[in-house]
Write a structure and sequence with these properties.
Structural class: mainly alpha
Order of helices and strands: HHHHH
Shape: elongated
Number of helices: 5
Strand content: under 5%
Helix content: over 70%
Number of domains: 1
């Protein structure tokens, strides 16, 4: 993805959240202070969970083959969702140093982690509604603190 198209995606989504009620200044400051730790903790947990999920799916895939075609396709979706979860978690870990230094690149990596997470929720079909609600909350919070990152 080029830098221009990355800016376009942020610019396309931002107007929807600009009209939302603003958080109080002290809440934004608190969120900016804890955001690096949120990225670090959930990034580590996400990587561990995604690797565990991939390992579990790999270990039980012979049973899926014996279970039939529907089960195999569900396993394929599970593998894809676990890979997407892993990518989102790695992006969070990559965002940690930038968020800690209050750099825009850290904020941008968290934004794309949220985008990837939303794609994963849509792909996994079973958690579409929860994924959309989570993404809306995540984008709202991210756009509330965007001005704190340079």
């Amino acid at each position: 993805m080029t830098k221009k198209s990355a800016t376009d995606l942020v610019g396309t989504i931002e107007p929807f959240f600009a009209k939302a009620p603003a958080l109080p200044a002290n809440a934004k400051d608190m969120l900016v202070k804890i955001m690096p730790w949120i990225a670090l903790i959930f990034g580590i947990l996400g990587v561990l969970g995604a690797i565990s999920g991939l390992g579990l799916l790999t270990a039980t895939s012979p049973l899926a083959v014996m279970g039939g075609v529907e089960t195999v396709s569900a396993y394929g979706t599970g593998f894809l969702a676990s890979l997407i979860w892993l990518i989102s978690s790695v992006l969070m870990l990559m965002a940690y140093p930038g968020l800690k230094a209050r750099q825009y690149k850290g904020w941008n990596l968290m934004f794309y982690s949220e985008v990837v997470s939303l794609v994963g929720a849509i792909v996994s079909i079973t958690s579409i509604i929860g994924g959309i609600i989570g993404a809306l909350i995540g984008f709202y919070l991210l756009f509330q603190i965007k001005s704190h990152y340079k």
